[in-house]
Amino acid sequence: MVEAIRAGQRLLTPTELEQALREAGFARYHIHHPFHRLMNAGDLTLGQMQAWALNRYCYQATIPKKDALILARSEDPEFRREWRKRIIDHDGEENGEKDGGIRRWLKLAEGLGLDRDMVTARRKALPATRYAVGAYLDLVTQGSLLTAVASSLTELFSPVAIGERVPAMLARYDYITEETLSYFTPRLHQAPRDAEHALALVTRWADTPEKQAEAVEALLAKCDLLWAMLDALHHAYVSPGQIPPGAFRPKDHRT
């Protein structure tokens, strides 16, 4: 699709660009990954769920840092005012009136039986997870601001993933409760709000075929990062079950 946009040398309309982003992004979104499907089917062990929560924390904890880097790149106060909402969503408020996504993810990890300090230290995360998270920071700092903003458009598909994941977990894992999954409830309105803002910016800023291709490439690069994290989880904890030295080893792991 990226090559077609470049080769066509025709500027897509905002509606056409949005459709291209939605189609390309959803086709590569990690909702289709085998690990994600096993989770929704109720086929993961507690240890595999713990490994997912631990490694995903590395990504969650990096989101406000990523957004701060994006915010710092803009000279537009209006952009910064809107974008900083994302940081508050994840870091929360100092006075405790608003619980942040990072704290709620730690609640999920603890609900799965993980030690909070072990999770926050991130030392037992998979090496591939740490590399993927670092690559995400590189993506939003080394490319254009258009690339940085477009990479966030995976949030277009987040409500679909949450809509599948939450009811599936509650129905198929008897140790998971609604309180354990409290991270996901605010995301059902935060993610669409953020995606709408980012999509409006991307369709306005991408005013040449080259920039439109750049926007699609950025979204696909983000999808690749999320997919790679699940690839690593599947390889380490499902098949063939080869956990790297120093990484988290669940009590129920059998290889």
TrEMBL record:
Family: Belongs to the PqqC family.
Catalytic activity annotation: 6-(2-amino-2-carboxyethyl)-7,8-dioxo-1,2,3,4,7,8-hexahydroquinoline-2,4-dicarboxylate + 3 O2 = pyrroloquinoline quinone + 2 H2O2 + 2 H2O + H(+)
UniProt keyword list: Oxidoreductase, PQQ biosynthesis
Pathway, per record: Cofactor biosynthesis; pyrroloquinoline quinone biosynthesis
Domain Thiaminase-2/PQQC: 23-231
Species name: Roseibium aestuarii
Alphabetical list of NCBIfam families matching this protein: PQQ_syn_pqqC
Name recorded for this polypeptide: Pyrroloquinoline-quinone synthase
Gene3D superfamilies hit by this protein: Heme oxygenase-like
